[in-house]
Write a structure and sequence with these properties.
CATH superfamily: Metallo-dependent phosphatases
Helix content: 25-40%
CATH topology: Purple Acid Phosphatase, chain A, domain 2
Order of helices and strands: EHEHEHEEEHHHHHEEEHEE
Shape: globular
Structural class: alpha/beta
CATH class: Alpha Beta
Largest sheet: 6 strands, mixed
Radius of gyration: 17 Å
Number of helices: 9
CATH architecture: 4-Layer Sandwich
Number of domains: 1
């Protein structure tokens, strides 16, 4: 029997699935088969994986299991996956193979009758200059080729090194550096969005932002991998839920 479509959309971010997070991966697969089918659309706003080093990763558990669950869901719902700051090597080949839409930066959608700008969120955190410099290096064609064409064992080692380096870097930064820049936020609202939904900060919050066009709303998503936080959109508007 088909699952009733309770929600117009479910939005989440920062699953950070990896070989070292079996519990997170199992919970997310259960979510994809249990809760997600209640929505007509699922948006994953980046960092689905803690690191993505190329198409061959799809043959490794638990990544293949997660992608298979996404493909099963995509047979009856629209599934959209955004690049995050950990998995921007995800490519169109993987998206096509597993039936989801891939977004590199941001997308504007009509949700709950409102114009919603969806993004991972790191591009709103413009105060973190060192992070943006590092991302520019990692996204360069030469580095991307090196990572995606390295032997699996070497790619895994690079992934673990990258995660350790990232965690160490974050511990030395203030919230002002890590948080959303007000200028970048207002510039994004100036594009006409009524609502912005983003992840990256791992802080679940709802905030009213006063703009020249009137009050607008910012939803920042929690860390799904850590606390199961996700946002639903239905007749009642936007509301946070926990898996």
């Amino acid at each position: 029997m088909e699952t009733p479509r309770t929600y117009e959309a479910i939005i989440l971010s920062d699953v950070h699935a990896s070989e070292d997070s079996a519990c997170i991966c199992r919970r997310f697969v259960e979510f994809l088969s249990g809760v997600a089918p209640r929505a007509r659309r699922l948006f994953i706003l980046g960092d689905l994986f803690d690191f993505w080093f190329g198409p061959r990763q799809a043959e490794i558990a638990p990544y293949g299991e997660i992608l298979g669950a996404l493909a099963a869901l995509a047979s009856s719902a629209q599934v959209t996956v955004f690049h995050g700051n950990r998995d921007f090597y995800l490519d169109a080949g993987i998206a096509g193979r597993f039936g989801f839409r891939l977004v590199a930066q941001s997308a504007t959608e009509t949700l709950c009758g409102r114009k919603a700008l969806l993004c991972h969120g790191d591009m709103l955190c413009t105060n973190d200059v060192s992070y943006h410099r590092m991302r520019a290096v990692l996204e360069s064609p030469a580095v991307e080729w090196l990572v995606t064409h390295s032997p699996t064992a070497l790619a895994r080692a690079m992934a673990r090194f990258s995660r350790r380096r990232s965690k160490l870097a974050v511990t030395g930064k203030t919230q002002r550096v890590l948080g959303i820049n007000e200028g970048a936020l207002r510039a994004s609202f100036a594009g006409g969005a009524d609502v912005i939904v983003c992840g990256h900060t791992h802080v679940e919050s709802t905030r009213t932002v006063e703009t020249s066009a009137g009050p607008r709303t910012l939803y920042t998503l929690g860390d799904f991998g850590a606390d199961g936080s996700y946002l639903v959109c239905d007749a009642g508007g936007f509301r946070f839920r926990r898996a």
